[in-house]
Amino acid sequence: MFEASFCPTMAYSWDKSIHICMKKSPLNFTERKTPCVNICKYDKNFMDGFVCIGCFREQYEITNWSKLSSKEKAIIYQDITSRMSEYKKFQNSQQYKQ
């Protein structure tokens, strides 16, 4: 896993910080302006490293977020939910390999 940046307010290990961050900032699609959780990390073994495992968006989605229509954002939020679920499965499979 390589790190693009890390939220300086998190004082926990990576595994705990992502879960705590998700609990404090649930993906409430109607109220949030962006799915960003200020944790920009990528795991080269998860979706070939193309998805941020903080917000579960692809680089294109991150850089173009402000230009996307509401309909496009709604589709991306569906993708985020799916990617988040896939990441949990991926994490579980990695724990069994160790």
Description:
With 98 residues, the chain is mainly alpha-helical. It is 45% helix and 4% strand. It is built from three helices and two strands. Strands 1-2 form a two-stranded antiparallel sheet. It is elongated, with a radius of gyration of 13 Å.
Q: If helices are DSSP runs of H or I spanning 4 or more residues, what is the number of helices?
A: 3
The radius of gyration over CA amounts to 13 Å
Count of β-strands: 2
Query: What is the general shape?
Result: elongated
Low-confidence stretches: 1-27
Average residue-wise pLDDT: 75
The largest sheet is: 2 strands, antiparallel
Sequence of strands across the biggest β-sheet: 1-2
Could you provide a short overview of the structure?
Helices cover 45% and strands 4% of the residues.
What keyword list fits this structure?
98 residues; mainly alpha; two-stranded antiparallel ribbon; 3 helices; 2 strands; 4% strand; disordered N terminus
Describe the secondary-structure layout.
Elements: E1 2-3, H1 14-24, E2 41-42, H2 59-63, H3 70-97
Antiparallel strand pairs: 1-2
